[in-house]
Amino acid sequence: MGQISQYFSSLIFLDVFGNEKGFYSPSQTEIILTTFMDNFTIESFRYKSSSRYSSYASAKGVYEYRKGSAVSKLNATISLKFKDRNWYIDQIMIN
């Protein structure tokens, strides 16, 4: 644990396929995302756009994954908050 959770705020809102929807701790978030990525092996990730307003920022992209021989796409949005001179992820949506 801890490979990505160091970049998370103290509470992260997740919406992964609508199944894992709610607020989670950094360690719970890492487990959920690791399980998701193990089951939906990433083929590629394409950056689409980003924006910033004051101490908030977000980035959008397309998560392309392989399930068997089929390749599918999901929209991904990550929101960040600036705190204590660092940016922390506070929201992840993959649908």
Supply database-style keywords.
single chain; about 100 residues; mainly beta; Nuclear Transport Factor 2, Chain: A; 6-stranded mixed sheet
Concise structural overview:
This protein is mainly β and 95 residues long. It has one helix at 26-39; strands at 8-16, 20-24, 41-53, 56-67, 70-83, 86-94.
DSSP summary, beta strand count:
6
Q: Can you tell me the number of structural domains?
A: 1
* Poorly predicted parts: none
- Multimerization state: single chain
Radius of gyration: 14 Å
* Biggest sheet descriptor: 6 strands, mixed
Query: What is the strand content?
Result: over 45%
- Overall geometry comes to globular
Helix coverage percent: 10-25%
CATH class: Alpha Beta
Count of helical stretches: 1
H-E order: EEHEEEE
Strand order of the largest sheet: 2-1-6-5-4-3
CATH architectural category = Roll
**What structural class is derived from the secondary structure elements?**
mainly beta
Amino-to-carboxy terminus distance:
25 Å
Mean pLDDT: 92
CATH topology, by name, is Nuclear Transport Factor 2, Chain: A
